[in-house]
Amino acid sequence: MRDLPPTATLRAFEVATRHPTFTAAADELHVTQSAVSHQLKHLEALWGLQLFERGKSLSLTAAGAALAPIVREFIMSLEATLSDLREQKGRVRLSVSTTYSFALKWLLPRLPMLSRQHPELLVSLDTTDKVIHFSSGQADVAIRLGKGIYPGLYSEFLFGEQVFPVASPDLLQRFGTPHGPADLLHFPLLTRDGAELVPKWEAWFQQVGLAFLPLKESVRFGDTNMTVEAALLGQGVALVRSGHVENEISDGRLVRLFDVPFPSPLAYYFVCPKGIESQPHIVSFRQWLTSEALKVQQIYG
């Protein structure tokens, strides 16, 4: 540590590595040429190394070239950290755990509204499909898809979803628009791996009163977002939950097929350890969340 010079000296070195003369470096730093020259001579004396070849223009020695990226990374990291800390000053960090698909499709598009309404909140998102253990400090609060059974935790219903088929305009142009659910038996149907969290074609066809034959699959998707993307690419009809395709339907990239009510057996819940739900910053987030969820519930019921 005895070889560590003042930050201003390191800054002078970093700037000088990017300019052909001390005068040009001094202009960027808003100091005199002699001040830059003095700082660099001091640095060379401190480290016992020649850092620059001096002539009509500056050039780094081998030692200077080796040290330049290290000093530059240090200064950039310091500036970025200071900027981040200043931004956080006076704000309350809230760590939110949710599933990747929900974060990507539902929560992220709405976060700018949260920031405008509650600038005091600094939300940190963690995405996982695994069971969360609040005791280990994984997150402060969570949003989960389930049946509302969370023993020992505070939970609050947010919204339920409808399950329905969607297709891209391109697919409908190639195969024609289906006039009824039975027509879908002649369409390529996209399927997903997974247990109860995944909408099942068998259950949907049963809901509309049709027998369902096993699909001749070429691909089975392991992720909701991949299934939606495949539908967007016109590869087939996807069976989706309403919360995952709001934007795609509103902008016309996907078309909902049939107005058949089929509520998902699962719903989204706000979950946190009992007792912290009344903390002011969590109340702010929870009230904003329930307000946004109510808008969705009014659309899809």
TrEMBL record:
Source organism superkingdom: Bacteria
Keyword DNA-binding annotated: yes
PROSITE patterns, sorted: HTH_LYSR
Gene3D superfamilies for the chain: Periplasmic binding protein-like II, Winged helix-like DNA-binding domain superfamily/Winged helix DNA-binding domain
This protein's UniProt keywords: DNA-binding, Transcription, Transcription regulation
Domain HTH lysR-type: 5-61
Keyword flag Transcription: yes
Pfam families noted in UniProt: HTH_1, LysR_substrate
Family: Belongs to the LysR transcriptional regulatory family.
NCBIfam families (UniProt xref): PRK11139.1
Name of the featured protein: Transcriptional regulator GcvA
Organism annotation: Pseudomonas agronomica
Gene transcribed to yield this protein: gcvA
